[in-house]
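User: Teach me something about this protein's shape.
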Amino acid sequence: MDTTTLIDALVETYKELNMKYRQHGGSDAAMRIVTRMRDDEVHFSKALKDRVTGIGTSDQGAGNLSDAIDGSDETLAHVISQFGTARATTLNLLKSIKDENTWTEPLDDGSTILQHAEELVRSDATQLKRLAESIGS
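Assistant: First, the predicted structure itself:
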């Protein structure tokens, strides 16, 4: 997948969440799915920031997100908004990568930023499918 298509797909996930599910009442299943998406996005964004900037931040608050995010009165719209904030950070970081080699340079685990981002797109598709099934849309 080329980087423009990848970034477009990541944008579309947030658009779909925002347009299709923001006004939904937020069943337990929907909340679990979107909360997982939010948490995964925060972790992805922090790891990407570490890689792109070289500044180690992933250990700072990355452990238990519930410590940093008060979920006692969260609505589905609120969690979608939090997801959107994290996704915006991810998108800005990805767009800041000007050197094409950075996308395909092997990371410590042998994979690349491009592969991780493609996996995020696939994960989004899976979670959106689960979300649609949980709501019956």
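Now, about its shape. Residues 3-135 form a domain with the Four Helix Bundle (Hemerythrin (Met), subunit A) fold (CATH 1.20.120). The helical segments are 3-21, 28-53, 65-68, 76-95, 100-104, 113-135. If you'd like, I can walk through any region in more detail.
User: That's plenty for now, thanks!
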